[in-house]
């Protein structure tokens, strides 16, 4: 290996000059099969991937695998499989991911499982893809199982198992670390729509667009419109009228427990939902799917009876109002108390306006309240959130460059379905001496 060229390649790689890095690493390697050149080919392949030169990356990664002394074979295999999948060579990618998974000690096996699942899904092998997504999402090392759960739902949907897919999408939405909740809610809406559960589909689509600002795809938008029409013009008129007046009744905040959880998910709900889902066996999931289908057939039969239909609608309304009211009076909303206070602190530290986080008040009053907190602080943390229906308290700690931490109690008031700040007080009772 040419060490001078290797150092030159490293400098280019760190500077994100991918073309120069790839050329220098290949030059430093000295040719395939040379002793100790596995790292050069590995990093050259990475640079080529950044350039989207997938075919060249495949060749170079294969050269890296010819170095018997290079210890990072599993990572090279994972990257090779990614390049193969990018080229549409899904069968090769599945085989390569399988070779990487033979390394039982690899710390990030969830990545390999999710990568292989994606290739299997692209090949139409949906049941196998679902198995890998399930395994990847349940890996304790996976820092963001929500993505695997959402993709699991897509594979189950494609496999003709929408009832199981609904549970997967719900579990994805319940993952506090997952930032694709809007996408998962849209997918949940499509699953509900495919089963004819129109009211629940509408609720999921509305939570996706209004709660998370997700832009629906064309199929999702069409399903949303169809579900809205099927759910009943009367219910649609009531929701539209509420929006025109600016008043959102409690029941209009959401029309299903799933959408309510998506607005504000307590950590314990996240843990329970994901744990419950992953603890199910495949047979239990299939049994659930059969039970859901049985209920759907029964509902379709009862739809012919207008009295049975009226009773079902009345029960649904009671459940909607009860669930939404419980959610509201428990102190949840969007944006949450935590989001409002964290946004205020971030803006204040950065020197930006904080007016949007406060209730309507004169600027002088906001400035006076904010002056309680020193504008120059190293970091801030949220220690506790005390919720109630119309007022909440958030305890925070502000750490300065020098001196003891300062503690404050932030008061918030309900505004619509979310929260705004009304005051900040020193929390002398918990201050450091």
Distance between the termini: 61 Å
Spans with pLDDT under 50 lasting ≥5 residues?
Answer: 233-276, 429-433
Helical percent range? 55-70%
Question: In order across it, which strands form the biggest sheet?
Answer: 1-2-3-4
CATH superfamily annotation of the largest domain: Tetratricopeptide repeat domain
Strand content: 5-15%
The helix/strand series, from N terminus to C terminus, equals HHHHHHHHHHHHHHHHHHHHEEEE
Structural class label: alpha+beta
Number of helices: 20
Secondary-structure arrangement, i.e. CATH architecture of the largest domain: Alpha Horseshoe
- Largest sheet, if any? 4 strands, antiparallel
CA gyration radius, whole angstroms: 27 Å
Q: Please, what is the average pLDDT?
A: 78
Number of strand elements:
4
By CATH reckoning, the class of the largest domain would read Mainly Alpha
General description of the model:
There is one protein chain. The chain folds into two domains: 3-311, Tetratricopeptide repeat domain (Serine Threonine Protein Phosphatase 5, Tetratricopeptide repeat); 337-430, Nuclear Transport Factor 2, Chain: A (Roll), CATH 3.10.450. It is built from 20 helices and four strands. The chain has helices at residues 3-14, 18-29, 38-50, 54-64, 73-86, 90-101, 109-122, 126-138, 145-158, 162-173, 181-194, 198-212, 218-231, 233-245, 257-263, 267-278, 282-302, 306-329, 337-350, 363-370; strands at 379-386, 391-399, 406-415, 418-426. It has a four-stranded antiparallel β-sheet with strand order 1-2-3-4.
């Amino acid at each position: 290996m040419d060490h001078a060229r290797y150092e030159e390649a490293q400098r280019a790689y760190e500077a994100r000059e991918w073309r120069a890095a790839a050329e220098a690493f290949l030059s430093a390697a000295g040719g395939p099969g040379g002793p100790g050149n596995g790292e050069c080919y590995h990093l050259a392949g990475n640079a080529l991937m950044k350039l989207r030169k997938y075919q060249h990356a495949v060749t170079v990664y294969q050269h890296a695998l010819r170095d018997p002394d290079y210890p990072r074979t599993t990572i090279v295999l994972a990257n090779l499989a990614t390049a193969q999948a990018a080229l549409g060579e899904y069968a090769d990618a599945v085989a390569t991911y399988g070779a990487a998974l033979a390394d039982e000690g690899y710390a990030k096996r969830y990545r390999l499982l999710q990568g292989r699942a994606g290739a299997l899904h692209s090949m139409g092998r949906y049941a196998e893809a679902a198995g890998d997504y399930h395994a990847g999402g349940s890996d304790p090392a996976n820092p963001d199982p929500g993505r695997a759960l959402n993709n699991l739902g897509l594979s189950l949907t494609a496999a003709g198992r929408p009832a199981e897919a609904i549970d997967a999408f719900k579990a994805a939405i319940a993952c506090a670390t997952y930032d694709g909740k809007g996408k998962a809610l849209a997918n949940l809406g499509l699953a509900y729509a495919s089963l004819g559960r129109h009211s629940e589909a509408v609720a999921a689509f509305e939570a996706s667009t209004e709660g998370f600002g997700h832009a629906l795809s064309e199929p999702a938008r069409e399903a949303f419109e169809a579900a809205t029409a099927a759910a009943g013009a009367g219910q649609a008129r009531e929701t539209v009228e509420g929006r025109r007046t600016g008043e959102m009744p409690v029941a209009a905040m959401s029309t299903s427990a799933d959408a309510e959880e998506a607005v504000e998910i307590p950590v314990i709900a996240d843990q329970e939902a994901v744990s419950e889902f992953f603890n199910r066996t495949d047979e239990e999931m299939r049994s659930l799917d059969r039970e859901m289908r049985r209920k759907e057939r029964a509902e379709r039969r009862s739809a012919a009876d207008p009295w049975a239909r009226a009773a079902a609608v009345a029960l649904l309304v009671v459940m909607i109002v009860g669930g939404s009211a419980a959610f509201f009076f428990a102190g949840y909303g969007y944006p949450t108390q935590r989001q409002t206070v964290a946004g205020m602190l971030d803006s204040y530290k950065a020197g930006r306006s904080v007016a949007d986080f406060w209730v309507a008040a004169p600027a002088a009053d906001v400035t006076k309240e904010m002056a309680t907190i020193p504008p120059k602080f190293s970091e801030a943390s949220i220690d506790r959130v005390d919720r109630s229906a119309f007022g909440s308290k958030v305890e925070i700690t502000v750490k300065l460059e020098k001196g003891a931490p300062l503690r404050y109690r932030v008061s918030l008031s309900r505004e619509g379905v979310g929260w705004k700040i009304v005051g900040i007080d020193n929390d002398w009772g918990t201050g450091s001496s």
